[in-house]
Amino acid sequence: MNGRIDDSKKTEDEVCANETVWRQAANLIFCAGGTLLCYLWFGVIQESITKGKYGSDGKERFTYIQALVFVQCAINAIFAYILRGKTRDNVPIRTYSIVSTSYLFAMITSNHALQYIPYPTQVLGKSCKPIPIMVFGFLFANKRYHFKKFCCVLMIVFGVGLFLYKEKVDTTYGKSVFSLGFGELLLLLSLVMDGTTGAIQDRIRQQHTVNAHSMMYYMNLFSSLYLLIGLLLTGELFDFMVFVQLYPKIIMDLFSLAAASALGQFFIFKTVTEFGPLTCSIITTTRKLFTILGSVIFFGNILTQRQSLATVIVFTGLLLDAIESKKKKTTNKVKLIEESSVQNKLL
User: Fold this and answer.
1) Where in the chain are the domains?
2) Distance CA 224, CA 219 (A)
3) CB-based contact 322:281 (threshold 8 Å)
4) What is the pTM of this model?
5) How far is 282 from 319, CA to CA, in rounded Å?
6) What is the DSSP annotation of 175-198?
7) What is the spatial distance between Cα 15 and Cα 264, in angstroms, rounded to a whole number?
8) β-strand 168-170 against 60-61: which pairing, if any?
9) Which of 20, 45, 189, 307 reaches 20 to 30 Å from 157, CA-CA?
10) What's the pLDDT tens digit per position in 159-169?
């Protein structure tokens, strides 16, 4: 009799365990699918706006980068305000106003670069973001990094360098040389701003109790205010309004872009909360690859064999970096648990 009861309990437990596994798998597919779809759509819309041709003769282009980033920051601020609810942190508003400056310049320069370079180049170039963050974190936030971290970063640098290499012939010596255009320089400046933003954010986390949604809200709020001032002072707002009157479809494109960005942030936060940073890093790395593939499929940006190899090298480096970062965090947690258990035994 007892044996039958035990067997029925085991069966119920197994059913519950299977249901939990399937529920988690479905949730992971939902998070990953949402992230990939949102940022694939974001990439398609962003490229269609910045690379699109307007007018009957197709000679007019969208050049109102401040307006584009303003709409994106404003929607992000509204979305973050809703998500943060009543939660607050103790970070001074003045600090957020400072970090918003570098955050804003990073967005403007990376978007402006799209007027000079192909979209896959911009996406892959922005994958170098860990490099300036490491450098600035080491210099200004007193952070230290493992040797394996440097190896992963070197792999990313090599891959990006291979991708950006232009076989420009030097007429003097008849040899191929490495050259950088204005778009690549804007991308480099954007990475420097990313490093500055990362270093300031590290300092903020060290000195204050930080709420992720509050940081997102204030950074986008101040960026929106700065951009509004810039739009008025430069007169771009009025030129943008004229462009909108001529091509009203751009309004839907801009709001679609901002909505995709905000929803993508929601899926990323949900993934980090429910599955951890490693899973999130793998998904966000994959979404960049999907963005490049989307650009190739929808806009005909064909990659050479060298660029395809470089793309594989970069994303391999990013995945290894994500896995190594997770291992380090796990090791640190184990050490803390062991130290606390030793202290408890001594007490």
Assistant:
1) 30-52+61-144+183-307
2) 9
3) yes
4) 0.77
5) 6
6) EEE----HHHHHHHHHHHHHHHHH
7) 33
8) unpaired
9) 45
10) 888 887 765 54
Instruction: Report yes or no: 137 and 206 within 8 Å, Cβ to Cβ.
Output: no
Burial of 174 (0-12, 13-18, 19+ CB in 10 A): exposed
The residue written with tokens 């050479």 in the block is 304
Bigger pLDDT: 257 vs 55: 257
What separation, in Å, do the N-terminal and C-terminal C-alpha atoms of the chain show? Answer: 48
Measured CA to CA, the distance from residue 132 to residue 52 in angstroms comes to 31
Asked if residue 24 lies in contact with residue 279, where contact means CB atoms within 8 angstroms, the answer is no
239: number of CA atoms within 13 Å, CB side? 16
Longest CA–CA span in the chain (Å) reads 94
Q: Six-digit token pair at 275? A: 């599955």
The backbone torsions φ and ψ at residue 54, rounded to the nearest 5 degrees and listed phi first, read -120, 160
Query: How far apart (Å, rounded) are the C-alpha atoms in residues 273 and 277?
Result: 8
CA dist 62 to 70, 173, 301, Å? 14, 40, 19
**Alpha carbons 347 and 341: distance in angstroms, whole number:** 10
Q: Which two tokens stand for residue 131?
A: 């490099």
Residue 296, number of CB atoms within 10 A of its CB: 16
With 0-12 CB in 10 A as exposed, 13-18 as middle and 19+ as buried, what is 58? exposed
Segment 83-98, tens digit of pLDDT: 887 777 888 999 999 9
Mean pLDDT of the chain: 81
Q: Using the structure block, give the residue that is written with the tokens 């991708």.
A: 163
Residues across the chain: 347
258 is written with which tokens?
């901002």
Cβ proximity of 314 and 164 under 8 Å: no
Helix H or strand E segment including 168 = strand 168-170
Phi then psi for residue 216, to 5 deg, are: -60, -40
**CA 78 – CA 220 distance, rounded (Å):** 9
Which 3 state secondary structure label does DSSP give 118?
coil
Q: Which pLDDT value is given to residue 147?
A: 81
In the chain, alpha helices (H): 2-51, 65-84, 93-113, 119-126, 130-140, 147-164, 182-207, 212-234, 236-246, 249-275, 277-299, 305-346
Q: Is the pLDDT of residue 337 over 50?
A: no
